[in-house]
Amino acid sequence: MFFKRFMQDNTRPAVKKVSQLINNSSHKQKKYISLMVVPSYSTGKTRTLRVPRALFHGVIASMLVISAILTGFYLRSNYFQRIAQDLDMSLTQTENRYYQFRAYAEQVQDGLIGAAAQIYEELNETEYRAQSALDEKAQHHQTELEVILDQIEELERQIREFDEDLQTIIDGLSARGDIIPPVAALVAQLKTSQATLRESSLIHNPPANDTEAGVGFLAMGMVGAVNYIPVTHCTVQEHLQVLINELNVQRKLMDCLESYRVLMDVYLRNFPTLWPVSGAISSYFGWRGNPFGGRGSEWHSGVDIPARTGTPIRAAGGGTVAFSGWRNGYGNTIILDHGGGKTTLYAHNSRNLVAVGQYVARGDIIAHVGSTGRTTGAHVHFEVLVNDVAVNPVPFMREHW
After folding, report:
1. How many CB atoms lie within 10 A of CB 385?
2. Number of other CB atoms surrounding residue 365 within 10 Å
3. What is the residue-level pLDDT of the chain in tens, covering all 401 positions?
4. Residue 369: Cβ within 10 Å count
5. 232 with 303, same domain?
6. Residue 260 and residue 206: Cα distance in Å, rounded?
7. What is residue 279's three-state secondary structure?
8. N- or C-end of the chain: fewer Cβ atoms within 10 A?
9. CATH number for the domain including 373?
């Protein structure tokens, strides 16, 4: 309204000269502010606008207020814009941190999954290795058990063979106890020592938990008797210990047998049990008819074994040559001393091959078959003498070369 009235009151421009405006100091001029409007073109007229001072000041104040308000709004808008930008930046950084943290969390989770998988794999591998080690150890123990059992079986086989050979000799010579008393005494002593050794063995004293088991071990006696010794349910090490004890006992028995074998070798090695030649006996020990066709009978102190001339004659046992030469009626003769009062005689030889004092082993060739002396053909006259008394040689002749 004020502006409209102002425009109506000033419809007619009041243009005055500058000098008049400057020199005019009227009361009205003090209440107004004159504004000079100079057109930008030369033909235009310069105009002067008279604005009330209060209105001018009010407009100026209003403009300043409006400018201040606008400036405040502008600054406030910038402030809020900066706050929005800061919030947006903060949200962006937070979002970036969130994604980084999420990526890191996924990476950590992947690492944990990988570590768990690796640990699981290592556990499986450790369990597999442990199981493999247990299986290998069990296989090793089984192999040791088999080896020890094989050793025990071999020892038992050797003991059986030794017992069989020894029993064969004992059976063959036991009929003449007066001939081999040292051997019989040694055998009896050996049996006693073996029985004592077995009674003191740990094999006959198993652990306290005598639970029946499906495994047994053989303990051989002197002449092939077999004893089954029960083994309790125990660990592989205890089984091995029992086997080792059994093996030690078997070794002690073998050592015992070996020691007595050395003692008996003196008798068995030299004892005359070998046939001097192979063949059939044509004339036995004792009384016989005259081989030359005469009447009556005569005493035959040995056995005759026919063989071709030149056939090797072997020593019936080990011994020392006591005689090697010619004897009336016997021709070329050899006498071997086997110790213990036992001697053997080999007569009618075509050739003697040993000298007096020489030691010969069982089976050594000592002469060749012939027909020297009082004889009807080529043969070996074989005698066995005990304490210089001729005895029947047949019980001694147990082996052929």
Report:
1. 19
2. 14
3. 544 554 555 554 544 554 454 455 545 556 777 777 777 766 667 777 777 878 878 888 888 888 888 888 888 888 888 888 888 888 888 888 888 888 888 888 888 888 888 888 888 888 888 888 888 888 888 888 888 778 778 877 877 777 676 666 666 555 444 444 455 565 666 666 666 655 555 444 444 444 333 333 333 333 333 344 444 445 666 666 776 776 777 677 777 777 777 767 767 778 898 999 999 999 999 988 877 766 778 889 999 999 999 999 999 999 999 999 999 989 999 999 998 889 999 999 999 999 999 999 999 999 999 999 988 899 999 999 999 999 999 998 988 87
4. 24
5. no
6. 30
7. coil
8. N
9. 2.70.70.10
pTM score, two decimals? Answer: 0.44
Please, are residues 384 and 390 in contact by the beta-carbon 8 Å criterion? yes
Do 253 and 292 belong together in one domain?
Answer: no
Distances (CA, A) of 179 to 147, 303, 360: 44, 19, 21
Give the β-pairing of 365-369 and 359-360.
unpaired
Alpha-carbon distance of 361 to 352, in angstroms, equals 16
Angstrom distance (rounded) from CA 200 to CA 328: 62
Name the phi and psi angles at 170, rounded to 5.
Answer: -65, -45
Q: Which helix (H) or strand (E) holds 236?
A: helix 236-268
Which tokens sit at 99? Answer: 């994604």
Backbone φ and ψ for 270, nearest 5 degrees, come out as: -95, -10
Widest CA span of the chain, in angstroms? 220
Pairing mode, if any, of strands 319-327 and 359-360?
antiparallel
* Eight-state DSSP code of residue 317: S
Task: List the domain range (segments joined by +) for residue 147.
Answer: 143-268
Which amino acid, 376? T
Q: Residue 15: inside a domain, yes or no? A: no
